[in-house]
Each structure stands twice: as structure tokens, then as C-alpha cells.
Amino acid sequence: MKLQLATLAAAGFLAAACAAPSAPPAAASPTASAASTGMARPAAVGGLDAARAQVARVPGDWPAWSALGSLELERARVSGDPAAYDAAQRAFETSLKLQPADNSSALAGVAAVSAARHDFATAERQARRALAVDAASPEALAALTDALTELGRYDEALATARRLDAVRPGVASFTRLSYQAELRGDSAGALTLMRRAAADAGTPSQVAFARTYEGTVALDAGDVATADAAYRAGVAVAPDDTGLLHLGARVAQAQGRTGVAIDRYAALVERRPTVAFVSEQAALLRSAGRAADASAALELARAAQSLARSAGVAPEAADVLFEADHGDRTRAVALGAELWRRAPSVGAADAYAWALHVAGRDREALPLVRKALALGGRPAGFVAHAEVVAAATGARLDRVP
Predict the structure, then answer these.
(1) How open is the CA angle 266-9-238, to the nearest 5 degrees?
(2) For labelling, which of 4, 66, 113, 350 has a CA lying 20 to 30 Å from the CA of 377?
């Protein structure tokens, strides 16, 4: 799984872990969607419609409002519509108004929403509030793990993920422990844990989430055959999942099936036009000699950025990289500095370093590429950036870090 998973943590990862018994893990709040918590067991659109009907019928049903919040987070993950975060926030806040005491699920839910919006410091505070109510809340432990990871506090994040695993071993804990392993360069351990998550999954969305990141870990390690097998296993259960569609596009590209990859990216960004996905699509189109189509894709990425900002989603590493490669260098550096201040993860270090490099400030970038690689993980993009910065500064790559 890419080290960008942290972003995933905010939406899908969290949801999976934090979702109420109606949302799956990957989305469950994960990266923050309702599935991200991994604890949810929701039923997609039927579950969302039923939850909405329930709160309309019984407006005082505070557990139903919390469940609805988790499902709205899942909707955000699946649709890519950041406006769904507002609906999730309202649902969790309604639950808390109806039941302000002993409502750890709603408190964990608002933490998941904050993480999905990349406000990880707030997410940490909210998750700890939930844990003050219920120290063994798996939803709160999942949200706290994700927040600490994005805040660059990796020892605490690992310890919290282990607490989650002790309290409720399953999809939410296995996926988070897998990411912690990948961050530290343990691809084999990360794969094993993601396969455990897939075996434990109780819904198609949970299976899709686990298979997507099993395949991503394998692909990033150069094992295209294993990535393809994970993709096929996932689509057999959840053929319409956008995470799997992204994996499938990357697998096809790695296999040299450029036409298939282009088609899959087109289907993906039609449903989830995120900056990261559209940037990858544009790079593929440009490499295929379709410069006009690549330029159109970049305009779509700009629109996606605007939509996310209007929904209160703070910039992430993908936004910094996009600005560095396709926008204004000065703005890219400013975005990188702000991201590094707000959420000093390895992904933020890499993105900020690249922005500084593009701006001709390689000496300042060098300490950041060291930080990006310091945990032991070696994502291809991070290594490529480190090589460029090392070459520009005359530093020895074997000493980065």
C-alpha cells in the first residue's frame, strides 16, 4: 500500500474502523469514510436509505443517528463527494445532542470526519474524548491510530493499533497494523496482515478494501502477479468498488496494457475525480502521447481541488505534488510548508521536499527526504524524489537517510 494510505486512513481506513454496524471498514471510516473503522457491517445504499428512514421515523433514536453518520462517511469514500462529510458531521452531532453522555460512538464518528478532512490534530482530541468515555472503544482507537499516523507520531500510532487489536482483532486492526508494517519497510508483514483482513471481512466493501491494499502493497514491492491476483479476488466480490478500480488501472499499466489502464482510469475519475487519481491519469495519458487529454484531466484535478476546499478538506500531499508538477512553484512550497506544520508525516516530508526541489531549493529539501525515508519504507515515488535531490546536492544516496 502506498504510504499515501494515511490519507486513506482518514477516509476509508477510519470508516472501516469506526463505522457503526452499518458501514464497512475500508470505507468505514477509512480514509475515512464510514467504512474506515472496519467495525461496521453496513449495507450500502439500502443501509443508508434505511438509516435515513429510521431517523425520520424516530428522530430521537441517537444510536441510529450515529449509524447514519458512519454510512454517510462511507458514501463519501465510495462517491468521492466531500460534501458527504457535512451530512456525516450533522448526523454525529445530532446523536451527541440527543445523548451527550456515554456516546463514544458518535464522538469517534466526529473524529473520523475530522480525519477525513485532514484535520488530524482535532481528530486526535476528539478520539481521546471518546476514549475518556469508553477506554476500549474500537472506533475511537481506530480513529486515534489514524490521527497519530498522519501527525507523524509513529510509535504512538503502532501502540494504539496494537491496543485496537487486543480489544477487537479484525479488519480494522489488521489493516492498520498492515500499514504500520509497510511504513517501516516490512512489505511481507503488511501483505500477511492485509490477507488476514480479507479473510476476516464481513462485507463486500471490507473485502474490497483489504484486497485493494493487499494489491497495492504487492505492486509497490514490484510483485505485479500478486497484485493482479488480489485485484481479481476483490472484483469477484465487489466489482464496482472504486478502490479496486484504481488498483486495476495500476496493475494494467504495470503489465504494459496501456489501453486497458487508460480505460480503467477514465472510469475511475468519472466516479471519483480526486487530485491523486486524476494526476495519475494525466501522467499516463501524456506518456501515451495524448497531451490534449492529459491537459483536460489536469483541469478536472483543479476542479476536484476546489470542491474539496469548499467542503472543508485541507490540502494533502497529493495537492502539494500536483501544484509542484503542474502549478505554481511558490504556492507548492507554501502548501508543503503548511502541510508539514499541520501533519508532519513521511508523506508530507516527501511532498514538501519535492516542492522545494522544484523551486530550486534542494539544500532545504535534503533533510526532508531523509525524514521521508527514515522509518524504513521505500515507496518508489519517495526513492525517486530522494535520488533527484541527492544528485542535485551531491549527497550520497546510501546516506539518505
Answers:
(1) 50
(2) 113
Q: Which amino acid is at 141?
A: L
Q: Are 353 and 333 in contact (CB under 8 A)?
A: no
Cell 478520539 maps to which residue?
127
Q: CA angle at residue 90 from 88 to 96, to 5 degrees?
A: 105
CA distances from 192 to 24, 179, 183 (A): 20, 11, 14
Q: Where are the domains of the chain?
A: 5-310, 317-399
The CA-atom distances, in angstroms, between 140 and each of 37, 58, 119, 170 are 9, 26, 16, 15
Residue 2 CB-half CA count within 13 A: 17
Contact 32, 14 (CB under 8 A): yes
Cell, residue 377: 519504507
104's grid cell: 463514544
Instruction: Report the run of H or E that residue 30 belongs to, with start and end.
Output: strand 29-31
Q: Any residues with CB less than 8 A from the CB of 398 and at least 6 apart, and which?
A: none
Question: Taking phi first (over 0 means left), then psi (-120 to 50 degrees means alpha), and beta for anything else, what does residue 394 get?
Answer: left
Digit-coded pLDDT (tens) for 347-383: 999 999 999 999 999 999 999 999 999 999 989 899 9
Query: How far apart are the C-alpha atoms of 59 and 255, rounded to whole Å?
Result: 52
pTM: 0.86
pLDDT of residue 278: 93
Between CA 264 and CA 128 the distance in angstroms is: 40
CATH number of the domain at 5-310, please? 1.25.40.10
Beta-strand ranges (E) seen in 15-104 are: 29-31
Q: Is the peptide bond before 401 cis (omega within 30 degrees of 0)?
A: yes
Size (the chain), residues? 401
Q: How many CB atoms lie within 10 A of CB 312?
A: 17
